[in-house]
Write a structure and sequence with these properties.
single chain, about 425 residues, mainly beta, elongated
Length: about 425
Amino acid sequence: MRKVLLSMVFALAGAITYAGGYRVGVQGQRALAMGHTGVAVVNSAELGFFNPAGLVYLENRLTVSAGVSAVFSEVAWQNEEWGESARTDNPAGTPFYFNASYKLNENLAVGLSIYTPYGSTVKWEEDWAGSHLVNDIELQAIYIQPLISYKVADFLSVGGGPIFVTGSVNFNRNLSRTLTDIDGNRANVTVDASGVNEWGWSAGALFTATEDFRIGINYRSEIIMNAEDGDADFENIPNTPLAPFSDTTFDAQLPLPAELTVGLSYQLNEKWLLAFDYNRTFWGVYEALDIEFANGVVSENARNYEDANTWRFGAQYEATDKLTLRAGYYLDESPVQEGYFAPETPRNDSMGFTAGLSLDVTSRLAIDASFAYVRFDEVDASYDYYVDENNQTVPFGGTYKSVAFIPGIGVTYKL
């Protein structure tokens, strides 16, 4: 049964890496509608997330952008050899953002940005074939960032600030493929860690080559979330010395990877604005994850994620004085390597198709809306590192199909 516990620890490592292995890219309705481009686009306080160096170029003294999205996602799994299949029944995720910028003078602006780059729920059908790896997982990470933006010269500005992160994770799985109590209920464990707080930073620069052409760069640091004294709750454990499980606590480190984004925007004419962003996310930080339970059990678990790229394209069209239309596309690489495809992180290469609009209700207030359809490549993949109660490595795999729909609404206020 100690072998079962070690396998459970390993599976827990997979659940925790989900906090970094799944990136929710919905940090602004205007940006998302343009393929989530924004590092060189100066059109709202959404720059607080994408590139704070641009805040000093906003025309109004006070600019506020806030919004929320609804993430509807589904994953289907099938193994034709076993004749089994399952689907997730995920509740809608609701990532949000709030960005505010205030110009102190022509060369200096300050701001505040609050956003949720990590946060989602995956819930599989009850007693599905992979329940020994995961039943459900819920996680959230909220970033809070004070900002400063300074114009060094007419053609160059810089900006950034510290990031305070607070997060939580709740994860449930069965202890093995067969273990039950006397009534036949599957033995399972729920691990929970909340109030996990750490600090990071971001910095950016914006270069205005001409009146119509801008180049931006933004870097967001790696943040290591140190979860201490999280709770591990064991249920339906058989009353036998062979199953020595009892509620305990655990410590773990949850790495959130660094990101580098470089982009450009070009004002083609009075009506059209074009944008492109290239993002490099340094998932390679997931070489391994150490989990330590209070009972002394320690496990170092290889993840071997690799750095991944995202290419984003967007366009904006000023249809009328009050209506602006947007559209975009992005291609997002998966960081998961062969043999490490875990069902709590069903992440493969994806394409995003986006659209949206802004409607000026008054001279100060605009309604922003966006919609994204994310299509993940169908993939035959496996997780090859589960160790069962007999100390046998048992791969778990099949065909995964995933899709997500993301409508969003927000407001922009200027004063």
